Structure formats: structure tokens, C-alpha cells
Amino acid sequence: MRQFCGIFMAKLKEYERRHPILIIIWSVLITALLVAGVMVGLSFRHNTAKEDEYIVFNNKYIEKELQQILKKDKITQEDLDSLRTIDIEDNQEITEIADLAKCKKLTQLTIKNCKLNDISAIEGLNELQVLDLSGNEIKDITALSKCYSLTELTLTNNQISDISPIYGLEKIQKLVIQQNNIGNIQEGIEKMKSLTFLDLSKNRLVNINQLAKSERLNFLYVSSNMLSETPELEGLTNLILLDLGEQCIF
Fold first, then answer.
1. Engineered SS bond to 101: which of 121, 145, 210, 232, CB 3.0-4.6 Å?
2. Tens of each residue's pLDDT in the chain, 250 residues
3. How many structural domains is the chain composed of?
């Protein structure tokens, strides 16, 4: 066998010596094969890397909403980083929004009339300026305590009884938190130094005297509550409108 291979190689070299063009052809073919192999390998690696870039969502309902917003079936982190506004309404399957923690560049978020009760994912959305979570089942708003960029916050029709976690949000100008379970205004609301519009209608308030320290208020709505005394709001010298309609003062 070795002898046969030796004879074959000798004849091949002799043939190539007589026909040097074969050497060029062989070289081109080998080079082409090598290049093709490298390209296939790179393509495979590229496709694999591409697959790895796609976001895996834990909540299929959030995924569907984002697919509709982005008009894409497969979503990358780059896609989520491009989002500035998300508007989700009337989806009764949504109870949590953990996947939205990946949308770091959001400035406006609306989730209305869902079944949302866990908003912990919002804590890391540092660029959020406008937030509307109306018509949900939210009780705890502690996650909002570090949303320092917020200027407008709407929490209408939830189950909130304590709003003190948001007292440190000094940029909030408009706060709408009607139709909740708020029974009193804890000390410290005056820390919201930019607050000019406050709607606390349809709660269970029995006293709003603490609001007298919110000197920048222009508009105050507290109708349909349970005030036990006439409010002492002499400190609100910038007040333009005070709504005490349908109030039971006794």
C-alpha cells in the first residue's frame, strides 16, 4: 500500500511538473474551500449570537403588548432601550410587570385598567417622568419612592391607603390619587416642593390640615371624602381652586 501511494504521488508530481497550471487550479480550489469553511463558521456564530440577543420574557402578556408596540415578533435589548413610551390598557391578565424593568430609558408609562398589584419593577426606571397606573389593584407604592424624575403621577382607582412613600419625590407637579383608601395625610407631604396640582377626591379623608404646608398648591380637589372639621388651609396662599364639593363636614 505504501509503495502504491509512493508511485501515485511521484506520478502526480511529474504530471504537475508537465502541467504547471494544475498547481494554480489546485491552490485556488483549496483556498476557495478554506474561505467557504470560514464563512460558514462565521455565519453560524453570527446566527447563534443573534439568537442569544433576543429577550426571553417571563410574562407572555407583557411580551405580546411589547410586540404590538414595537411591531416585532422577536425583541432585543436594543429594541427595549429605544422605547420612551409604553401604553398598556384593559388587559386583565397583567398582574405584574417585572419584564418592564429592562426598559431603562422609559420616560412615560401608562398601565390602566388591568389587574396590576405588583409594581416593584418600576423602582429601577430612573428616567420615568410621567406615570399612570389608574384602575388597578395596587396597595403598596413603596417602589415609587426612588422615581426621582417623576413630574406627573396618576394612581386613580386603586387600593392605596398610604402615600408617604412618595413624599421624597420633589419634582412631582401633578398628583392624582382619587378613588383610593386614603384616610389621612401623614406629615411630610410638604417635601413635595414642586406640587401644584393635587386630586384626593373620593377617598376616606377625615382631616386635610396637613396640606396647609404645601404652599405651592394651585389646584386642590378633595370632594367626596369624610372630613370631620372645616379644613384650615390659610397657608395655601397660591391656591387658585379648592374643590370641597359633595363633602360631609360635621
1. 121
2. 555 445 545 554 554 555 555 555 655 566 666 656 556 555 544 443 344 489 999 999 999 999 999 999 999 999 999 999 999 999 999 999 999 999 999 999 999 999 999 999 999 999 999 999 999 999 999 999 999 999 999 999 999 999 999 999 999 999 999 999 999 999 999 999 999 999 999 999 999 999 999 999 999 999 999 987 888 998 899 999 999 987 665 5
3. 2
Per-residue burial over 183-202, b if 16 or more Cβ lie within 10 Å, else e, is ebbeeebbebeebbbbbbbb
Q: What residue numbers bound the domain in which 108 lies? A: 84-243
User: Quick one: 115 and 26 in the same domain?
Assistant: no
- Single pTM value for the model: 0.79
145 occurs within a structural domain:
yes
> Do 112 and 41 fall into the same domain?
no
